[in-house]
TrEMBL record:
GO MF annotations in UniProt: endopeptidase activity; serine-type peptidase activity
Name of the protein in its database record: Peptidase family S41
Alphabetized InterPro entries for the sequence: ClpP/crotonase-like_dom_sf, Tail-specific_protease
GO annotation, biological process: proteolysis; signal transduction
Organism of provenance: Chryseobacterium arachidis
CDD domains linked: Peptidase_S41
High-level lineage: Bacteria, Pseudomonadati, Bacteroidota, Flavobacteriia, Flavobacteriales
Length: 514
């Protein structure tokens, strides 16, 4: 391709991108007729039924049909896509599949606006939050913004009660099944995602708060970053070997994976995984378990609290360092039909250049996906490396294992936890997991767009279940030892779950010495 043609193509891509942002934002302001919205309701339900392999796991077909029909009866006036989202998503949440959710429609920002935001600090994202019932608390303020104390409750934002937002947002969220612990963990993380989707990226906000019975009002502003801040941002983006292996997260200047010994003689090893991202995970576990074996550690604590899941490949690899014998992590993954893997919208969000490139690679994708399914006993399954027998690694840990879990342990975190509990390999400490004990529907997605409102609807394609004897409780993985953590524990940097494990280890060590 000549340089002239290259620059013409580049210009067309940029122009298309700008036009796409403008067109999308204009679409968000348009009120759609009831007839068009009802078409979108029918489209959404038909695509879910067409693709989702375990749709009626937690709700009967009769009840779900009734909810969708009732929804259509309530749509009797024009609505914007955002208003429509707040009517449709609560119905989808009633399916009780945590991975199945509409993407909230929101204003897109241009590259120029993104550049401007990169030069400013976050307004709400600089705090850490805690949700209890219909209340929102600030529990972390590492930059000491206006000296707001941890434990401060936010009563209103720009004179709108926070409880109104929480009651509206919690209807949008579901865990897998009838779990009760997931919602507050997830809502504290996505509250301001929803808020910004509704309000846009504003530069100021007024918070009415209360702390120890004293009410105060704060004016938050989106501050510009200093030269040192920008320099630090640039430094944080550099990918050193340590950052790669421990999966560095520049957003909050932390590592996704951490390993350390908790005592001087290396008897107790500790691994913290915030997300099963798979990036450099094989190397991390290989190096970590070699260190643990060389130290001849007797105890291992694995902390997957607040871990929303991720890669099956990573949890299968982690399990290979914990199992004393050959194992199979998950059961064969069921799909609705042989064509299900082809419904992933291969050309989704392609710019003109990407579209051209993907056109050439589509035949490879088509044949790979076509031959990835097989039929057995009248059902269709998708070939997955994690449903084959795996062998333990040579540095597999043979000592006692404790796993810390809570309501924020979801998806892949629940899969590995359920497997470890079933195989009686660990002691689980904490709260019931946010993900279901008996599996979930995810794997990869069929990406749909509702034809009139243009709202995105990703639908999970694979039924992923741990290779266990199912409990049929329709709830999360229940810990062997239930210990909850309060807001005050977090503020005071106390960890009652970890404290219990350390006391149990000390007690066992004392008994072994007698």
């Amino acid at each position: 391709m000549g340089s002239k043609n290259y620059f013409i193509l580049l210009f067309l891509i940029l122009l298309t991108s700008c036009m796409s942002v403008r067109k999308h934002n204009e679409q968000q302001k348009v009120c759609l007729s009831p007839e068009k919205l009802k078409e979108d309701v029918d489209f959404a339900y038909s695509k879910i039924k067409e693709t989702h392999p375990q749709l009626y796991w937690y709700i009967s077909k009769k009840d779900l049909d009734y909810k969708f029909d009732s929804l259509k009866q309530t749509i009797n006036e024009p609505l914007t896509p955002l208003q429509f989202y707040f009517k449709l998503q609560p119905v989808i949440a009633n399916i009780r599949e945590g991975h199945l959710s509409l993407r909230i429609p929101s204003k897109r920002i241009s590259k120029k606006e993104i550049k401007a935001l990169e030069g400013k600090k976050g307004m709400f994202s600089r705090f850490e939050y805690y949700v209890k019932d219909d209340r929102l608390f600030i529990i972390g303020n590492k930059d000491s913004i206006q000296d707001i104390k941890p434990g401060t409750e936010i009563i209103t934002i720009d004179q709108v009660p926070v409880s109104d937002y929480i009651r509206r947002y919690e209807k949008l969220i579901s865990s897998d099944g009838f779990n009760t612990t997931f919602q507050p963990y997830y809502l504290k993380d996505v509250f301001f995602n929803y808020y910004v989707a509704e309000k846009g990226f504003e530069d100021k906000a007024t918070l009415e708060t209360v702390y120890n019975g004293e009410k105060k009002t704060y004016q938050l502003t989106r501050e510009s970053k200093s030269e040192n801040d920008l320099k630090q941002d640039k430094e944080n983006k550099k990918r050193t070997q340590e950052k790669k292996v421990n999966d560095y997260i520049a957003f909050n200047n932390s590592y996704n994976r951490n390993f350390k010994f908790l005592d001087q003689d290396s008897t107790i090893a500790y691994i913290k995984v915030k997300s099963f991202s798979s990036d450099y995970s094989a190397r991390f576990y290989k190096e970590t378990f070699k260190k643990i074996k060389n130290a001849q550690s007797s105890y291992l604590i694995i902390d997957i609290r607040n871990n929303y899941g991720g890669s099956l490949e990573e949890i299968n690899n982690l399990y290979s360092y914990l199992s004393p014998k050959p194992y199979t992590l998950i059961k064969p993954s069921q799909v609705i039909s042989k064509s299900s893997p082809l419904k992933t919208n291969y050309f989704r969000k392609s710019n003109p250049l990407q579209y051209i490139l993907r056109t050439f690679t589509y035949p490879t994708f088509f044949f790979a996906q076509t031959f990835s399914t097989y039929k057995k006993d009248g059902k269709f399954y998708y070939k997955n490396r994690s449903d084959r027998e795996s062998k333990p690694k040579k540095d597999a840990f043979n000592g006692k294992v404790y796993v810390l879990i809570n309501g924020g342990s979801f998806s892949a975190s629940s899969i590995i936890t359920a497997k470890l509990k079933n195989d009686k390999r660990v002691v689980l400490v904490g709260e019931e997991t946010g993900g279901a004990n008996d599996g979930t529907v995810a794997g990869f997605y069929s990406y749909q767009t509702l034809p009139n409102s243009k709202i995105d609807l990703p639908v999970g394609v694979l039924l992923v279940q741990p290779n266990i004897t199912f409990t049929h409780t329709k709830k999360g993985v229940v810990p062997d030892v239930t210990i909850t953590e309060t807001m005050q524990d977090i503020i005071d940097k106390k960890d009652p779950q970890m404290d219990w494990v350390m006391k149990a280890i000390k007690k066992e060590e004392t008994a072994n010495q007698k």
